[in-house]
Design a protein that fits this description.
The protein has 391 residues and is α+β, with helices and mostly antiparallel strands. It contains 13 helices and ten strands. The structure holds flavin-adenine dinucleotide.
Length: 391
């Protein structure tokens, strides 16, 4: 166990390697944080920061050493995501999707696919996106309609539209879930590696309320031909492949939300100490202390919840329910916390450019992707009661 005076108290619970990891990540994130206001304003991630993120362990951490990654634990990769969330949720969102793409390639990619896609991704030379959602298929992913028609050559022709896809504006390939036969339902859904240069899919920006520096797009496939060698995993196994990364995705969102809560605590506390009304700092009013104390309790509780789920995953247990609980708890907590942070700032907290305003918007995203709060509740309910209330 090591800590330094300036280290956050909760780092004292971590081992030496983990403390060094988060300290290094925080150092890099502090370095790039000044790019934040312009990136938010322009709605454009400075993609030049991505290799540096990889260097401090993002994305590479989630991948085993055999595939060119660092083989970090679930807890360690989640700790990195907490730091990203504390700095800038757009980075957490971007890194989360890059990690997901890398994880799926590592889990199901052929050696050729790993050479062409995974290795360059881990080297920061290629970037990827992942598309399951469609305008008419969100929580009910199995109802997706993007069609992958098999051609006599063995290639597939993709037709359809994906919605709200992170990273698609600048990444040069994506993993697309499409059905080879709508009559087969979930058993027809297959994962395809689609390249921008080769296939010619079209990308349309969808300017969003939260994570403004992250890319969010619709992706259109108008007869894009994908070679048979770009099927990722087995035909008909696309949804179950996506499920392999579901725990880590939910954990990453949970940890990122804890980072948002931590940032809210730091910003609201600093403001309460420096702002004076009625002749004394806001910090001296009991009702403001209540707001700050509530933020601190939620941030601390969220951290305990995601770290417990991560440790369970690291033990080899099936921690699916705990990851759902963690995603549900931490994303809802981040929203409560961000609302309170705005309250501490007063009107200033609702103005563009204010940190509380950004945290408020960014927290709002977290209860929707990687399974909405309602879907988490239904999965927890089913696990506890043995009855599905989804359909
Ligand atoms: C910023 C952002 C980035 C995203 N990035 C990606 C990405 O990279 N790739 C990708 O594939 N997708 C991405 N998504 C999409 C995301 O995964 C979906 O928004 C999510 O799955 C929910 O689908 P939906 O928005 O269509 O909502 P719907 O499924 O239409 O749900 C609407 C509401 O109804 C509720 N609901 C639905 N079904 C039930 C039920 N059975 N019981 C109770 N309530 C129900 C939901 O909880 C929600 O409150 C992103 C979304 C956002 C906001």
């Amino acid at each position: 166990m090591i800590t330094r005076d300036a280290d956050p108290a909760h780092w004292a619970q971590l081992d030496h390697d983990s403390v060094e990891l988060v300290r290094r990540a925080r150092g890099y994130l502090d370095e790039i944080a000044p790019l934040l206001p312009a990136a938010e304003r322009d709605r454009a991630l400075p993609v030049g920061i991505i290799p540096g993120l990889l260097d401090v362990g993002f994305v590479r951490g989630a991948i085993g050493v055999r595939d060119g990654g660092l083989g970090l634990s679930h807890l360690q990769t989640a700790l990195l995501m907490e730091e990203a969330g504390r700095c800038w949720a757009s980075i957490r969102t971007t890194a989360n999707i890059l990690s997901l793409v890398a994880e799926l390639l590592s889990a199901a990619g052929s050696s050729e696919q790993k050479r062409r896609f995974l290795r360059p991704l881990l080297a920061g030379q290629r970037l990827g996106w992942f598309a399951v959602t469609e305008p008419e298929a969100g929580s009910d992913a199995a109802s997706l309609a993007t069609l992958a028609e098999r051609l006599p050559t063995g290639s597939y022709r993709l037709t359809g539209r994906k919605a709200y896809i992170t990273n698609a504006s600048y990444a040069d390939f994506g993993i697309v879930l499409a059905t080879v036969d709508p009559g087969l339902g979930a058993r027809g859904i297959t994962a395809f590696l689609v390249e921008h240069g080769a296939g010619g899919y079209r990308v349309m920006a969808r300017p969003q309320l939260p994570v403004r520096a992250a890319s969010c797009c619709d992706v259109l496939f108008d007869g894009v031909v994908v070679p048979a060698g770009n099927v990722l995993g087995d035909v008909g196994r696309g949804l179950s492949l996506a499920m392999r990364a579901i725990n880590s995705g939910r954990l990453n969102v949970s940890a990122g939300c804890t980072g948002i809560a931590q940032a809210a605590l730091e910003a609201a506390s600093a403001h309460a100490v420096s702002r004076t009304q009625f002749g004394k700092p806001l910090a001296g009013f009991q009702l403001v202390q209540q707001l700050i104390a509530d933020i601190a309790v939620q941030a601390n509780a969220a951290r305990q919840v995601y770290q417990a789920a991560a440790r369970l995953l690291d033990s080899g247990a099936d921690a699916r329910v705990e990851c759902s609980m963690s995603k549900y708890f931490c994303s809802e907590a981040a929203n409560q916390v961000a609302t309170r942070a705005v309250q501490v700032f007063g009107a200033a907290g609702l103005m563009e450019g204010n940190v509380a305003e950004r945290l408020f918007r960014d927290a709002r995203e977290a209860t929707i992707p990687e399974g909405t709060s309602q879907m988490q509740v239904l999965q927890i309910g089913q696990a506890l009661l043995g009855v599905s209330a989804v359909r």
